[in-house]
Amino acid sequence: MRDVDESRREAPDAGAGESTLVDAATLAGVPDEFQRLWTPHRMAYIKAGPEVLRHECPFCDAPRKSDEDGLIVFRGRTAYALLNLFPYNSGHLLVCPYRHIATYDQASDEEVAEIGALTQQGMRVLREVSRCDGFNIGMNQGHVAGAGVDEHLHQHIVPRWASDANFFPIIAKTKALPQLLGDVRRAVADAWHG
After folding, report:
1. What is the chain's Cα-based Rg?
2. Which of 71, 77, 85, 148 is most buried (most C-beta within 10 Å)?
3. How far apart are CA 153 and CA 40, in angstroms?
4. Whether 156 is catalytic
Protein backbone atom coordinates (compact mmCIF):
# COMPACT_ATOMS: atom_id res chain seq x y z
CA MET A 1 0.00 0.00 0.00
CA ARG A 2 1.17 3.50 -0.68
CA ASP A 3 1.81 6.05 2.05
CA VAL A 4 -0.44 8.52 0.24
CA ASP A 5 -4.10 8.70 1.27
CA GLU A 6 -5.75 7.00 -1.72
CA SER A 7 -9.16 8.42 -0.77
CA ARG A 8 -7.97 11.89 -1.83
CA ARG A 9 -7.53 12.63 -5.52
CA GLU A 10 -6.76 15.64 -7.66
CA ALA A 11 -9.78 16.75 -9.64
CA PRO A 12 -9.81 19.33 -12.43
CA ASP A 13 -11.18 22.75 -11.56
CA ALA A 14 -13.63 23.52 -14.37
CA GLY A 15 -13.07 27.26 -14.20
CA ALA A 16 -9.31 27.72 -13.97
CA GLY A 17 -7.92 24.58 -15.60
CA GLU A 18 -6.07 23.80 -12.36
CA SER A 19 -6.34 20.74 -10.10
CA THR A 20 -7.71 20.69 -6.60
CA LEU A 21 -7.53 17.92 -4.02
CA VAL A 22 -10.90 16.24 -3.46
CA ASP A 23 -11.84 13.78 -0.72
CA ALA A 24 -13.49 10.53 -1.94
CA ALA A 25 -16.37 11.19 0.44
CA THR A 26 -17.41 14.19 -1.71
CA LEU A 27 -17.54 12.18 -4.95
CA ALA A 28 -20.63 10.43 -6.35
CA GLY A 29 -21.99 7.50 -4.38
CA VAL A 30 -22.29 6.73 -0.72
CA PRO A 31 -19.17 7.57 1.33
CA ASP A 32 -17.59 4.59 3.05
CA GLU A 33 -14.34 3.46 4.64
CA PHE A 34 -13.37 1.02 1.87
CA GLN A 35 -10.11 1.35 -0.04
CA ARG A 36 -10.34 0.79 -3.80
CA LEU A 37 -8.02 -1.58 -5.64
CA TRP A 38 -8.22 -0.88 -9.35
CA THR A 39 -7.93 -4.05 -11.46
CA PRO A 40 -8.81 -2.96 -15.01
CA HIS A 41 -7.55 -6.22 -16.58
CA ARG A 42 -10.52 -8.04 -15.03
CA MET A 43 -12.94 -6.15 -17.34
CA ALA A 44 -12.12 -8.53 -20.19
CA TYR A 45 -13.26 -11.44 -18.03
CA ILE A 46 -16.35 -9.62 -16.79
CA LYS A 47 -17.42 -8.58 -20.30
CA ALA A 48 -16.79 -12.01 -21.80
CA GLY A 49 -18.46 -13.86 -18.96
CA PRO A 50 -18.12 -17.58 -18.28
CA GLU A 51 -19.57 -18.46 -21.69
CA VAL A 52 -16.23 -17.72 -23.37
CA LEU A 53 -14.63 -20.80 -21.79
CA ARG A 54 -17.45 -23.04 -22.96
CA HIS A 55 -16.98 -22.22 -26.64
CA GLU A 56 -13.24 -22.43 -27.13
CA CYS A 57 -10.24 -23.57 -25.15
CA PRO A 58 -8.08 -20.59 -24.11
CA PHE A 59 -4.97 -22.80 -24.10
CA CYS A 60 -5.57 -23.94 -27.67
CA ASP A 61 -6.36 -20.36 -28.72
CA ALA A 62 -3.37 -18.59 -27.09
CA PRO A 63 -0.65 -20.08 -29.36
CA ARG A 64 -2.57 -18.86 -32.44
CA LYS A 65 -2.15 -15.27 -31.23
CA SER A 66 0.92 -13.05 -31.05
CA ASP A 67 2.96 -13.50 -27.90
CA GLU A 68 1.71 -10.15 -26.57
CA ASP A 69 -1.97 -10.89 -27.24
CA GLY A 70 -1.72 -14.46 -25.93
CA LEU A 71 0.38 -13.38 -22.91
CA ILE A 72 2.96 -16.00 -24.00
CA VAL A 73 6.44 -15.64 -22.55
CA PHE A 74 8.06 -18.71 -24.17
CA ARG A 75 7.18 -21.19 -26.93
CA GLY A 76 8.82 -24.61 -26.71
CA ARG A 77 8.57 -27.65 -28.97
CA THR A 78 5.67 -29.46 -27.24
CA ALA A 79 4.68 -26.96 -24.54
CA TYR A 80 4.66 -23.23 -23.86
CA ALA A 81 4.52 -20.79 -20.93
CA LEU A 82 2.10 -17.89 -20.58
CA LEU A 83 0.81 -15.52 -17.94
CA ASN A 84 -2.46 -16.36 -16.25
CA LEU A 85 -5.05 -13.84 -17.45
CA PHE A 86 -6.66 -13.90 -13.99
CA PRO A 87 -3.60 -14.25 -11.71
CA TYR A 88 -3.41 -15.06 -8.02
CA ASN A 89 -0.22 -12.97 -7.82
CA SER A 90 1.74 -10.82 -10.28
CA GLY A 91 3.79 -13.11 -12.50
CA HIS A 92 1.46 -16.12 -12.14
CA LEU A 93 2.56 -18.38 -15.01
CA LEU A 94 0.93 -21.38 -16.64
CA VAL A 95 2.79 -24.11 -18.53
CA CYS A 96 0.65 -25.93 -21.11
CA PRO A 97 1.20 -28.58 -23.74
CA TYR A 98 0.10 -27.50 -27.21
CA ARG A 99 -1.89 -30.72 -27.49
CA HIS A 100 -5.43 -30.57 -26.12
CA ILE A 101 -5.24 -33.19 -23.36
CA ALA A 102 -7.01 -33.06 -20.01
CA THR A 103 -4.76 -34.87 -17.53
CA TYR A 104 -1.09 -35.43 -16.80
CA ASP A 105 -1.28 -39.17 -17.46
CA GLN A 106 -2.30 -38.42 -21.07
CA ALA A 107 0.91 -36.44 -21.71
CA SER A 108 3.70 -38.01 -23.70
CA ASP A 109 7.15 -38.50 -22.16
CA GLU A 110 8.40 -35.58 -24.26
CA GLU A 111 5.56 -33.32 -23.06
CA VAL A 112 6.16 -34.28 -19.42
CA ALA A 113 9.88 -33.50 -19.79
CA GLU A 114 9.27 -30.14 -21.43
CA ILE A 115 6.54 -29.12 -18.96
CA GLY A 116 9.02 -29.89 -16.17
CA ALA A 117 11.87 -27.99 -17.85
CA LEU A 118 9.66 -24.97 -18.55
CA THR A 119 8.44 -25.01 -14.95
CA GLN A 120 12.04 -24.93 -13.70
CA GLN A 121 12.96 -22.13 -16.13
CA GLY A 122 9.83 -20.20 -15.17
CA MET A 123 10.85 -20.37 -11.51
CA ARG A 124 14.35 -19.11 -12.33
CA VAL A 125 13.00 -16.25 -14.43
CA LEU A 126 10.39 -15.20 -11.85
CA ARG A 127 12.99 -15.27 -9.10
CA GLU A 128 15.23 -12.99 -11.21
CA VAL A 129 12.47 -10.64 -12.38
CA SER A 130 10.34 -10.34 -9.25
CA ARG A 131 12.68 -11.41 -6.44
CA CYS A 132 10.01 -13.72 -5.03
CA ASP A 133 10.62 -15.72 -1.86
CA GLY A 134 8.91 -18.97 -2.92
CA PHE A 135 6.38 -20.62 -5.22
CA ASN A 136 3.15 -22.54 -5.30
CA ILE A 137 3.36 -25.09 -8.12
CA GLY A 138 0.52 -27.38 -9.05
CA MET A 139 -2.08 -28.82 -11.37
CA ASN A 140 -5.80 -29.04 -10.71
CA GLN A 141 -7.09 -31.83 -12.92
CA GLY A 142 -10.82 -32.12 -13.38
CA HIS A 143 -13.60 -29.73 -12.44
CA VAL A 144 -14.08 -31.37 -9.02
CA ALA A 145 -10.37 -30.78 -8.29
CA GLY A 146 -10.72 -27.05 -8.91
CA ALA A 147 -9.59 -26.74 -12.53
CA GLY A 148 -11.10 -23.65 -14.15
CA VAL A 149 -10.24 -25.07 -17.57
CA ASP A 150 -10.47 -28.80 -17.01
CA GLU A 151 -10.22 -29.92 -20.65
CA HIS A 152 -6.63 -28.71 -21.20
CA LEU A 153 -3.73 -29.67 -18.94
CA HIS A 154 -1.88 -26.73 -17.40
CA GLN A 155 0.56 -26.29 -14.54
CA HIS A 156 0.48 -23.22 -12.30
CA ILE A 157 3.64 -21.41 -11.16
CA VAL A 158 2.59 -18.80 -8.60
CA PRO A 159 5.36 -16.59 -7.21
CA ARG A 160 5.05 -15.83 -3.50
CA TRP A 161 6.56 -13.18 -1.25
CA ALA A 162 6.79 -13.17 2.52
CA SER A 163 4.57 -10.09 2.58
CA ASP A 164 2.03 -11.05 -0.11
CA ALA A 165 -0.54 -12.69 2.16
CA ASN A 166 -2.24 -10.06 4.24
CA PHE A 167 -5.88 -9.79 5.29
CA PHE A 168 -7.19 -9.02 1.78
CA PRO A 169 -7.59 -12.59 0.47
CA ILE A 170 -8.96 -13.94 3.73
CA ILE A 171 -11.34 -11.23 4.91
CA ALA A 172 -12.00 -9.08 1.86
CA LYS A 173 -11.79 -11.81 -0.82
CA THR A 174 -9.49 -9.47 -2.74
CA LYS A 175 -6.01 -9.82 -4.24
CA ALA A 176 -3.83 -6.77 -4.81
CA LEU A 177 -1.90 -7.05 -8.07
CA PRO A 178 0.67 -4.26 -8.27
CA GLN A 179 1.64 -4.71 -11.94
CA LEU A 180 -0.26 -4.70 -15.23
CA LEU A 181 -0.26 -7.97 -17.19
CA GLY A 182 1.45 -6.45 -20.24
CA ASP A 183 4.31 -5.11 -18.12
CA VAL A 184 4.77 -8.46 -16.37
CA ARG A 185 4.65 -10.40 -19.68
CA ARG A 186 7.30 -8.13 -21.21
CA ALA A 187 9.65 -8.43 -18.20
CA VAL A 188 9.29 -12.23 -17.96
CA ALA A 189 9.65 -12.77 -21.73
CA ASP A 190 12.74 -10.52 -21.89
CA ALA A 191 14.38 -12.34 -18.99
CA TRP A 192 13.43 -15.77 -20.38
CA HIS A 193 15.05 -15.08 -23.73
CA GLY A 194 17.83 -13.35 -22.21
Report:
1. 20
2. 71
3. 27
4. no
* Choice among 55, 100, 143, 154 that is catalytic: 154
- Surface-to-core class of residue 114, CB atoms within 10 Å of its CB (0-12 exposed, 13-18 middle, 19+ buried): buried
- pLDDT values of the chain reduced to their tens digit, one per residue, 194 residues: 334 444 444 444 444 444 444 455 555 555 555 555 556 655 655 666 555 555 689 999 999 999 999 999 999 999 999 999 888 888 999 999 999 999 999 999 999 999 999 999 999 999 999 999 999 999 999 889 888 899 999 999 999 988 776 545 544 555 666 677 788 889 899 999 87
Domain range list for the chain: 60-193
Nearest to 74 by CA among 94, 100, 102: 94
In this structure, how many other beta carbons lie within 10 angstroms of the beta carbon of residue 140?
A: 15
Q: Report pTM.
A: 0.68
What is the CATH number assigned to the segment(s) 60-193? Answer: 3.30.428.10
